[in-house]
Inverse folding.
């Protein structure tokens, strides 16, 4: 099979499983913001198979603890969120940047366009970042975010979630997603979560309660493992 | 803003366990501004680097309205085709330095702008030559995943003519991948949907 045939075959495969699709009308604002034409598969080029790398200069230790940036304690249920970042071959992705942001315990973001009439917490900003370690593992300490209303449909509420942004080793592996909590009663009406139509794939977005990560008299643990799609040009040190 | 739709949809929630596989995308949402953009994000190259220019444009929706709450990222080689492998994205590049990565949120007019340089053409994985280009991602509320495209340059006509991607796209659409030279740099608009929709790429399956 030629490279072109391989690429076309793989384009067909991906076209049928693009999930979430761009257009999901239940999520109203996808209607005018979704590409309507088929994606084009470019030849695998080095611009996409490489990406920025990260070092200790990118993060401070306190960036991974979202609860310590005020003059007092952040309000809410303190939690530890951790997991391992792997590529689609199961290899840990180390020293990669993980950025998170979230609402506070009352469901309010420190953001000028968030008009939800819930209190801000002067001791909680809700943004953090860290690098994965040599085993691809990351850990954040934060506050469990509250659900919040939005205007997509009547009486619409977002399930509690933490936004995640990851780079992986290459432009191809970039991922922006949201982590949810087990048993959230709001899943049944959320078109963002349900925009992932494959139910078993959608369930990958739900963290699991992890008692082994729970710290006595301090914080509850949740585990959220992440798998990045896309290839990277494997650096020498990784082979 | 579209009217809220009545809750005609109810999604079934069952005990199906998660399957093994790649973590799905979710939208970046409307509230990323205090977390993701940073001051030096638009500085891919230092402004006094020889050849530095402004790469800018607007992101538009299906009705041609600018999108004020999107995030644009780019990644590229330098003038010699080298990709930066020194770690770090948050520190500004030196005045004549180069970082390779940029991040810029769009303003009220849907406008983004980077300071960068034109990369040398870098080959495909199989060694085929490609015209100079920059890899670009756009994220926004209302997009359940990013869109990916490439920024080529209109003053590279002969390299563009033999570029494998540009020549594989129908002629009527390939122009959406080419930035227009102007005083001080290049303009590259992104149109998410419509007759002049930008060509978007699938890079996840490589
Ligand atoms: Fe959110």
């Amino acid at each position: 099979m030629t490279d072109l045939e391989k690429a076309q075959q793989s384009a067909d495969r991906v076209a049928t499983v693009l999930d979430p699709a761009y257009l999901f009308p239940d999520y109203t604002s996808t209607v005018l913001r979704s590409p309507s034409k088929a994606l084009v598969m470019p030849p695998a080029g080095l611009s996409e198979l490489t990406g920025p790398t990260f070092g200790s200069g990118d993060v401070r230790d306190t960036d991974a603890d979202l609860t310590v940036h005020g003059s007092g304690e952040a309000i809410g249920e303190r939690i530890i969120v951790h997991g391992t970042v792997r590529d689609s071959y199961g290899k840990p992705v180390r020293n990669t940047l993980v950025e998170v942001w979230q609402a506070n315990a009352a469901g309010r973001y420190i953001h000028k366009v968030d008009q939800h009439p819930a209190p801000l917490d002067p001791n909680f900003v809700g943004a953090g970042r860290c690098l994965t370690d040599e085993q691809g593992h990351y850990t954040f300490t934060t506050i469990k975010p509250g659900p919040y209303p939005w205007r997509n449909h009547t009486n619409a509420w977002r399930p509690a979630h933490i936004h995640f942004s990851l780079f992986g080793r290459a432009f191809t592996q970039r991922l922006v997603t949201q982590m949810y909590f087990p048993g959230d009663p709001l899943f049944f009406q959320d078109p963002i979560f349900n925009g992932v139509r494959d139910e078993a794939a959608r369930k990958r977005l739900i963290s699991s309660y992890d008692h082994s990560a729970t710290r006595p008299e301090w914080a509850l643990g949740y585990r959220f493992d992440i798998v990045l799609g896309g290839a990277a040009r494997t650096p020498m040190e990784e082979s | 803003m579209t009217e809220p739709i009545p809750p005609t949809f109810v999604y079934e929630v069952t005990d199906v366990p998660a399957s093994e596989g790649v973590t799905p995308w979710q939208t970046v949402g409307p509230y990323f501004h205090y977390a993701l953009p940073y001051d030096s994000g638009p500085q891919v190259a230092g402004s006094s680097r020889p050849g530095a220019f402004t790469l800018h444009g607007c992101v538009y929706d299906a009705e041609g309205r600018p999108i004020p709450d999107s995030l644009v990222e780019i990644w590229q080689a330098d003038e010699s085709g080298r990709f930066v492998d020194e770690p770090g994205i948050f520190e500004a590049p030196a005045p004549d330095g180069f970082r390779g990565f940029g991040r810029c949120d769009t303003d009220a007019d849907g406008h983004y702008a980077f300071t960068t340089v034109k990369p040398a053409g870098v080959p495909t994985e199989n060694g085929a030559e490609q015209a100079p280009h920059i890899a670009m991602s756009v994220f926004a509320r209302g997009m359940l995943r990013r869109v990916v495209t490439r920024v080529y340059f209109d003053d590279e006509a002969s390299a563009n003519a033999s570029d494998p991607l540009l020549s594989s796209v129908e002629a009527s659409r390939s122009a959406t991948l080419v930035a227009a030279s102007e005083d001080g740099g290049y303009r590259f608009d992104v149109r998410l949907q419509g007759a002049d929709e930008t060509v978007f790429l699938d890079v996840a399956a490589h």
Notes: Chain B touches chain A through 95 residues (CB under 8 Å). The longest helix of chain B spans residues 157-161. The two ends of chain B are 37 Å apart (CA to CA).
